[in-house]
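[step 3/7] fold_predict: job queued, chain A
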Amino acid sequence: MATKIVMEALSPTMEEGRLVKWVKNEGDAVKSGDVLAEVETDKAVMELVARGEGVLRKRLANEGDASAVGTLLGVIAKPDENIDALIGGAGAPAAAMSAPSPAPAPPPAGNPVSSIPSSPQTSQGEASTPPQEHERRGANRINTASVPGGAPSPAPSNGRLRSSPLARRMASERGIELGAIQGSGPGGRIIRRDIEQAATSAPAARGAVHRAASSGDYTDVPLTQIRKTIAKRLGESIGPIPTFYLTAEFDLGRIAEMRDAMVEAGQKVSFNDIIIKATATALAQHPEVNAHWTGDAIRQFHRVHIGMAVAIEDGLITPVIFDAETKGLSEISAEAKELAGRARERKLKPEEYTGSTFSISNLGMFGIDQFTAIINPPEAAILAVGGVEDKPVVINGDLQIRKRMRVTLSCDHRVIDGATGAKFLQTLRRMIENPLMLVY
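[step 4/7] structure written:
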């Protein structure tokens, strides 16, 4: 029996993926579990594996194509098996594919073509709801305009054009009106080959799109999957979340002395490692800050999982140091370096960047004195850490040069009140300015 290769939800927040590389070619023998392709998710580059055995009969997506979760990418089958019925709706999410019929109709409940793998739900820090078909269809209404040599698409009864997400994306990229295309898929659905044929028959339109994309006035940089996710999630945060900010300046004199002593003893520990440990220790004493907003409750965590923001080439990812309050400085330092290195190589597993209860973003190494960070929902707060600098300060009436650092706590006011956030920063100050408290 033929096996569909679909774009799987390879991370908890993934809604679409970009096919980076095919590992198997058409005609290659395939065993269950074999790596078929590499896929760029919203967080990392991961492997797409075979769910059946046979021969890779057809590849329906090209390297570089972005496809919604559930989209049919290829077919594994016996060498002589007829797969025409499976590839007829190429480019459509599998959940939306239906058998050919005279008029559009929802697929029957038991139709094997309509099944897609379930999305993993391993995240505490990020919730994911796979997009439904009615969201992916968009609002492409019937357009009665036509082009020379083209035929208008028939108007379905619901007033919408039936088209696959891949077809809509290709049409948008090529400047092609869907209303001018006759669909050849099931029920008149517009699929990839229809867009390719329309593009071949309209060279003038393609030329116009090409000239716009290569204009000397600007360059359009396609969105990566991680940049799309950043835009969506942060858009969900800064608008609906009532946020306030608390800024404090800490003295790092004793931390600097402790760090120098540790380095001399062969333990390479950074200021950021110490800040992570101090924050985790303070959060263990303030579960009201180590919390999530769930919509109908405030979830206070008894364990501290610190999300550590790491800048990568095309965005930001937040690997998690789990149970940070129970780990020593050397352990946190080694784990932070290892996670940051694999984050930059896009090799993190989903369980390594989901599940944080609180996040820290440090831009001090870029010469930033102070900034505000955007909360990563459903977390209730995030700590923005500025750079360490020598400043003149008055201590006991004497003017001294001391190492100082500013931090800003962004708080979700639905969870944290001003006094609550201030008390947390007071505790954090004690940890930072008296670092021996971190070793007990």
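[step 5/7] annotate
Residues 226-439 form a domain with the Chloramphenicol Acetyltransferase fold (CATH 3.30.559.10).
Residues 254 and 433 are 6 Å apart (CA to CA).
exit 0
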